[in-house]
Predict the 3D structure of the following.
Amino acid sequence: MTEKPVVLMPEDIQRIMGKDAQRNNILAAKMVSEIVKTTLGPKGMDKMLVSPTNDIVVTNDGVTILDEMQIEHPAAKMMVEIAKTQESEVGDGTTTAVMIAGKLLENAEKLLDKKIHPTIITKGYRIAAEKTQEILKEISLKISPEDEDILKQIAMTAMTGKGAEGLKEKFAEIIVKAVKQIGDFQTSLTEFGKKQIGDFQSSAEDIERKQIQHNGKIDLNDIKIEKSKGNSIKDTELISGIVLDKEKVSADMPKVVYDAKIALVDFALELKNPEIDTKISISSPEQLQSFIQQEEESIKDMVGKIEMSGANVVFCQKGVDDFAQYLLSKKNIYVCRRVAKSDMEKISKATGGKIVSNLNELASPELGYAQIVEEVKHGEDTLTYIKGCKNPKALTILIHGGTEHVLDETERALKDGMGDVASSMKTGLVVPGGGAIEIELAHRLRHFGQSLSGREQLAVEEFASALEFIPTTLAENAGIDPIDILTELKSRHDAGEKNAGINLFTNKVENVLEARIIEPYKIKSQAINSASEVAIMILRIDDVIASTDKTGSMNSMTGGMPGMPGY
């Protein structure tokens, strides 16, 4: 009697085990890293992504590229997730996070070739990641929301190399003003030293330390970005209020309202339909006339209550009856209908008005205020401006530009800048840019690694060299010899110049704080955290089991990474 083979799984299951699974996952992660690396830094290149329906996206924003590519490989999807996390947490540094993760896995492959067990590598990576965060906190510099020049430099560093680079000074001013306006900060004047952070002293110990008290949070959703095709990108403006992609409901309404008292209503200015099937029996013309008159009286009563409240502008979340439109026009009241709930909330924050759910509750204290509400035509677009709000906690950046692609890329650049400035104001910490912080971290990490006795020392060494991948790529993308730059950076940091980095405007290694190349601490902290976590997770996988989909095709495990279907 021969024994029958034991069948654990159906035949349509695909399984990769051991070294093959590890190598396959590492290869996929490396490919993702290779895709975005050419976009890094001020001299990075753009990617053009064309969808199956011929929609075009031109960008060098890491998360946008990876999102548009519809990546299918499971390990590569994990890399895309860290880019999305970086985007939601900080708003910038997505390419950095993906590149560090890819390099950590590439370097781990060298250790696997030396027969070092993945558990030892992951332990070493964990030790290195913890120590890196410790060093990063130690060498970061403190700032306060009052240091506007530094905040502008941070915004400019974030936008350099993006589509909006030509006007980065103007945009930096807009970003800092907007973020400071919506934030709620108080800076106490407790001083720990005599030197100003504005002097850009190279030593963290020499810099004035200010205590920053945070009241509330910065919510970047309170900054509305509205795009208008037409005019030039240099006409982009910050509006101290809200711009709506809406027009007034009737041509007879005033085009401009000065000293606007704004009612925000989230119910329809029309008669309610019964929620259940209802029949009304009318047996004579008099009854019909009476019914119509009662409807008109109800609408007149609604309009009368709005007028009584003193409102001369109404933003309605739902519909507005034709007769109500006519009556409101006669009263010279400006009305917009079907305003999105998110926009209603922003108008409330900007004008100080309250959103009312019952017309009987509408009174003067519930009204918002703005100096001007006006309808403006920009090319084919008709917009409603709500301007001149007192201390608004919601603002609008109105981007102008010639094409949709320019508008979209400018929006991405502004969001990167806003994320960086908000992050710096929340943590109160910044670090030198231009690869200086990565080289310093690698330098100190190697020194720390020498104190370890086990094989983990080799993993810490590889973690340090993964961090050096950032300055190397910055140099490579700028057309400079990366080996020369890396050698010079290492020697300068060995000599104690911890702020030495690459100034890609001069293509030289210099003190990047003096060159005003500054980045938020949170970008680096989050990128290193996410990258090390995903690298450790992928290294611990030694078996990949995938089933077929309903069409009978396998998940894309063996093909490395299928890239861009339809592109």
Q: What stands out?
A: The longest strand covers residues 368-378. The two ends are 56 Å apart (CA to CA).
